[in-house]
Amino acid sequence: MPSPLEILKQYWRYDAFRPMQGEIIDMVLSRNDVIALLPTGGGKSICFQVPALVMNGLCLVISPLIALMKDQVDQLNKQGIKAYAIYTGITNREIDIILDNCIYGQVKLLYVSPERLQTELFRERAKKMEINLLAVDEAHCISQWGYDFRPMYLQIAAFRNEILPQVHTIALTATATESVICDIAEKLELKSPAKFKASFARQNLAFAVRSVEQKEDKLLEILARVPGSALVYTRSRRRTQEIASLLLRHRISADYYHAGLGYELRMKKQDAWKKGQTRTIVATNAFGMGINKENVRVVVHYDVPDNLEAYYQEAGRAGRDGKRAYAVVLYHPGDKLRLQAHFQQAHPSIAFLQRIYQALANYFKLAVGSNLLSYFDFDITDFCNNFNLGYSEVYYAIKKLEEEGLLELTESFYHPSRITVNVDKAELYKFQIANATLDPLIKILLRLYGGEILGNFIRISENQIARMLNTTSLVVKKQLEHLNALKVITYDKMRDKPQLAFVTPRYDAAKLPLNRQRLAERSDIQRAKTEAMIQYAEQMEKCRTAMILDYFDEVVFNDCGHCDYCIEKKRKISKSDHIRIKEMVQYALQKGPEYPEEIGKLFSHFELPILDETILDMVNKNILYYDDQGRLCKRNNQGL
Half-sphere exposure of 147 toward its Cβ, with a 13 Å CA cutoff? Predict the structure, then answer.
């Protein structure tokens, strides 16, 4: 059995684990339940992927994010690790093949959404799999106290108890308060879980809020003063384009990104930014998931986020290389009213939720009781026009229905073309002889994709096949459709439109099972989160970092020294303050050596940074020194 470090070196080419990763992996391999809270970019996935490769069998990963599932599976496959993802939008035939491979093949990781756990097909097949670990990603989704609650997560414990009673669980998240962590342990029914919580403190990241009347001018000033790669977040798709145009007019390299763009264009823009060809990307919060660009120097929030969890996660994309970076919120006096209005819009009435659900059922022509986990291409603009509804009110109603576990909206959905051959080699050969016009296409498919295409869904490129056949992609698509009609292959064509799925069989809208009490409680929780975000943006009487850490229940006694509050406080400290503090240090050491912590008790919370600076200055000038016990001492031949 290879060691975790050997696995890390072989597949990830790292010589050592990041802080806490090794300890978490050891605890998982010791068959303990684990809760791991690691910040964005902290390497959460390694904590279950490495154990999955060390142990026999496969790791079942629960994740609510299709984009993240697909990204991780693609990366694992590139590294030579066999992994699959089952999500809304792939065919039943492909699901069937994937599940068979997980039972009989050498699959190491299977990613599924929590909704999949409720289907009879999956539950029966899971019983036959050799599952060695259950990994619950984005585990904060299980808690209604969290910022992204998903009721389907509440079913994970029942699934585990029935199907995987001997399998241990690792629950992972990047942002969670202490109450959410406790909720995760309780709702997943973890058995004496080992808890690992990395500090939310980022010593190299300076937080700031700029209260301004003209956000455009301040943004230009920030980008002029902070060189290097930049990321600007805004709420609306339209504004991403407007701000990118503004930056380009001022000769700042920029581009825009949002979920409404086609897949290839999104990837082109994203890659140009990652490679440094574009300096600034202006984006909605659809951007950033799975992107690990280390040298981002500044993240600017042009619009204030809804809560500190989302803000911390997005701001945390700056400075992952450990070098100085900045996270700035641009705040206008009118933003408070906009945030409060947005909160109201994001919590529509029960009657409106029922109306939207009925309209969607009518739009897709769904009968009551039908379409469990069915998915549809969804043009929200066309839907709004059909029913004379506003875009924002529809969007937030769908998100609330999604939060209630009834729908699933995937905005930036890209599903490449895939095919599998449904017949064996002998039958395929007979077909080629009998169908000379299709023989060249089949030969190209076998040459490009080999024997894997027999019984497995393989991603294909119609353009590449067309070039090799010296024809057009339209001709190739028609031939593939013909082969599909003949049942020789299954051809799952490329889709690049937002997908809307009915997670449950379609309900009668009047009897929609909405949890009214939970909706009311969630509204109160989100209102408190909105107010905490407003307080963060408006206050200038506390260290920004300390405020964020306090929000996440992390106790700190010192200010960070580099946020906007701390910088402003330093500017106000005069020479007389240094002299006064130096005299107090002299007084504290009159009776002999003393620990710095004891000296610190003589000073207020706001004086501690200048105390540290004063002591450091006195040590550097050979006035003070530290003894073997870490106590401060004055030199006998030096006066204070």
Answer: 22
